[in-house]
C-alpha cells in the first residue's frame, strides 16, 4: 500500500498567483505538504505589468529560479497549474517547461492540472509522461 501523502511543489506562471492559496489549502486538506514560489504573496492583486516587475527582480536579485528548483528537488512530485493565459489554452510557459524538465530529470512525478497545451514543445511535454488530473486534486497519488 502506497502512502498517498506527498511533498508537492506547485509550478505555474506568476499570473496565476491569485489561484494558488486556495489550491494549496485544498492539497493540504488532502494530506499533502505543498511548496509554492516563496514570493507568491507579493503577486496577489497586482496587474501583469506589476507582476512582471516583481518577477524580474526575484529572478535577477533573489535567485528565484534556483530557489524554486531546490523546492522541486526536495519534493516527491510537481503539479503544473496550466490555466489559460494570453489566448493559449492550458498554458505552459518557458519557465514552467524548464521546471518540468528538471523534475523529469530528477525522476519526480509530474502532474498537470489540465491537458497538455498545443505548443511547439508539446512532444517534449508528452515524452515526460505527465499525469493529467483534469482539476481533480484527489487524483494526485504516489504511484511509485
What does this structure look like?
The protein is an alpha/beta fold. It has one domain (7-139): Rossmann fold. The longest helix has 14 residues, at 48-61. The protein starts with 6 loop residues before the first strand and ends in a 12-residue tail after the last strand. It has helices at residues 20-29, 40-43, 48-61, 64-73, 94-105, 122-127, and strands spanning 7-12, 33-35, 77-81, 109-112, 131-132. A 5-stranded parallel sheet has the order 2-1-3-4-5, sandwiched between helices. 39% of the residues lie in helices and 14% in strands.
What is the helix tally?
6
Helix content: 25-40%
Which strand order do you get reading across the main beta sheet?
Answer: 2-1-3-4-5
- Portion of residues in beta strands equals 5-15%
CATH class, anyone? Answer: Alpha Beta
Taken together, the total number of domains comes to 1
Which secondary structure elements does this structure contain, and how are they paired or packed?
Elements: E1 7-12, H1 20-29, E2 33-35, H2 40-43, H3 48-61, H4 64-73, E3 77-81, H5 94-105, E4 109-112, H6 122-127, E5 131-132
Parallel strand pairs: 1-2, 1-3, 3-4, 4-5
Amino acid at each position: 500500500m502506497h502512502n498517498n501523502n506527498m511533498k508537492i511543489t506547485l509550478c505555474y506562471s506568476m499570473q496565476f498567483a491569485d489561484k494558488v492559496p486556495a489550491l494549496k489549502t485544498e492539497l493540504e486538506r488532502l494530506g499533502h505538504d505543498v511548496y509554492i514560489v516563496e514570493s507568491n504573496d507579493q503577486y496577489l492583486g497586482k496587474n501583469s505589468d506589476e507582476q512582471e516587475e516583481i518577477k524580474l527582480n526575484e529572478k535577477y536579485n533573489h535567485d528565484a529560479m534556483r530557489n524554486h528548483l531546490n523546492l522541486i528537488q526536495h519534493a516527491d512530485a510537481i503539479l503544473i497549474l496550466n490555466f489559460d493565459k494570453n489566448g493559449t489554452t492550458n498554458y505552459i510557459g518557458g519557465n514552467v517547461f524548464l521546471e518540468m524538465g528538471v523534475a523529469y530529470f530528477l525522476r519526480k512525478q509530474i502532474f498537470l492540472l489540465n491537458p497538455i497545451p498545443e505548443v511547439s514543445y508539446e512532444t517534449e511535454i508528452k515524452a515526460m509522461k505527465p499525469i493529467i488530473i483534469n482539476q481533480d486534486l484527489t487524483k494526485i497519488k504516489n504511484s511509485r
